[in-house]
Design brief:
two-stranded antiparallel sheet; seven-stranded mixed beta sheet; globular; 13 strands; alpha/beta; 19 helices
Length: 483
């Protein structure tokens, strides 16, 4: 985001939220001191459990000052404290972006990303020197690429990919650049920047920070309003509606609609301001890997989730650079491809759109999307109505995820082995089965082959119906079975 736009957006953000809270208080909603007291409580509680550091000390000093000033503050003083809290949150979220650094990173950083994503070994690098690896060797971008470019020209895009790895942010930012589009903004978990190298890439590929440990409702409101304002100002966004990485590796079947719902208020405000490019589009995308760096930690967390022992992972393999490169060396021999599949776009209400951004009804006829938000002839937000629209969009997005998911050889093999383990260990719960590997130490290879064949026949039927995609390796395997 351009610096001049960022300052204007942050000023507008503070004004909007302060006005909204004041108006709600006047309409018998929570009084200002209650809103501020709630923020103080949540933040001091969070800081109590976090490690010390400069940011920790600065935040602690601010909220301690606010707690001390609140009891004796008049309405103007409380408004001032609220304004400072909003400004603090918004500047923490906004982060930094340098156009010159972005150009340098995208040009010079491709070989580094290729090594990380494609698991290139030092031996292979030496053999091919001075030629450097290209990310295109390991990353396949497919689907509605031209459609995405055209929607960007006529409106603002909210790209919503699946989420299975911290690498998703880096890959998605790279794909956007490779398609010749300007950098998209996206929210990345604060813990991701603990890896200096990849954190540097994310920050300069358009990331803004999201601290999922913050439970303060005011912080969440600032985050949502920031995303809304960036869309209003024509900045395309990336949002992972799964909310966090899929612990089981499965494609998301339950979404978090918070930031995905920003498309509707952004569109309404654009209509009010009579902007030329008022339209906002939701575009689903699916990432498919053979292997995921953080798989071990994610699986462990999936098993622990039954007991709700933890939710936010802050210490997985991604945060340790040495572990990243060890992973690369371990899998370099695989013909490892990452598939990034773009789906067709839709309007903020779930209607499909054509290449010109015109909304379509189920029969393919053009419709006026603005009528969805008109009240007495004027565009207006209605929370309950807009929440229902967002749920409908979520259903369309999940349909696209299932349809565009690319099944790879490792997925089939893992599924076959798990199925056999369950058959061989009836009555054993999933947690014990995965941790212990069943009662037997080995498995008959022929039985694995037969189970793989059964799964692949089922996949052929799904692929023929357009219910899933298959990688070229999987396609070749299906062809051999069919013969």
């Amino acid at each position: 985001m351009r610096q001049e736009d960022q300052e204007r957006i942050l000023t507008e953000l503070q004004s909007r939220i302060l006005h909204r809270i004041t108006a709600q208080a006047a309409a018998k909603g929570p009084p200002l001191e209650e809103v501020l007291a709630d923020s103080i409580y949540h933040e001091l509680r969070r800081l109590k459990d976090e490690a010390d550091g400069r940011a920790h000390r600065e935040a602690g000093a601010f909220w301690a000052e606010a707690r001390k000033a609140l009891p004796r503050g008049n309405e103007r003083a409380i408004q001032s404290l609220l304004a400072r809290a909003i400004d603090r949150y918004s500047r923490e979220i906004a982060g930094y972006f340098d156009e010159r650094v972005y150009r340098t990173v995208t040009r010079a950083g491709e070989p580094v990303l290729a090594m990380l994503l494609g698991a290139t070994s030092p031996k292979r690098l030496a053999a091919n020197f001075p030629s450097m690896p290209q990310l295109s060797d390991n990353l396949v971008v497919q689907g509605e690429t031209e459609h995405l470019r055209r929607l960007h020209e006529v409106g603002t895009v909210l790209l919503v990919p699946t989420h299975v790895s911290h690498m998703d942010s880096v890959i998605t930012g790279y794909v956007v650049w490779k398609l010749g589009l300007p950098p998209f903004l996206y929210g990345a978990g604060l813990n991701l920047f603990s890896n200096p190298l990849l954190g540097y890439f994310m920050r300069n590929l358009g990331a803004y920070t999201v601290d999922r440990k913050k439970a303060d409702p005011l912080y969440k409101e600032v985050l949502k309003e920031y995303a809304t304002l960036t869309l209003e100002n024509g900045y395309d966004n990336i949002f992972f509606p799964g909310g966090t990485r899929s612990r089981s590796g499965a494609v998301e079947k339950r979404l978090k609609y918070g930031l995905m719902g920003t498309g509707i208020p952004a569109y309404i405000n654009n209509l009010k301001q009579k902007k030329n490019k008022s339209k906002v589009f939701i575009v689903p995308a699916t990432l498919s890997y053979q292997l995921v760096l953080e798989a071990e930690t994610l699986m462990d967390d999936f098993l622990k989730e039954v007991g709700k022992s933890r939710y936010i992972i802050t210490d997985d393999e991604f945060s340790r650079p040495r572990r990243v490169f060890e992973f690369a060396q371990q899998v370099f021999s695989l013909d490892s491809k990452i598939f990034f599949t773009l789906g067709r776009g839709m309007d903020p209400f779930g209607n499909p759109v054509d290449d010109h951004g015109e909304s379509l009804d189920p029969h393919g006829r053009h419709i006026d999307a603005s009528r969805y938000v008109l009240v007495d002839g004027e565009p207006r937000e209605l929370p309950q109505r807009d929440a229902e629209y967002t749920r409908e969009v979520g259903e369309r997005v999940m349909d696209a995820y299932a349809r565009d998911n690319v099944v790879q050889a490792t997925n089939i093999t893992a599924r076959a082995i798990l199925t056999l383990l369950r058959k061989q260990n009836p009555g054993m719960d999933l947690v014990r089965l995965i941790r212990a590997g069943g009662r037997s130490e080995d498995m008959e290879l022929l039985a694995v082959y037969r189970e793989v064949e059964t799964i692949m026949r089922q996949l052929r039927g799904m692929a023929d119906r357009g219910g899933i995609r298959l990688s070229p390796t999987t396609q070749r395997g299906l062809s051999l079975i069919h013969i």
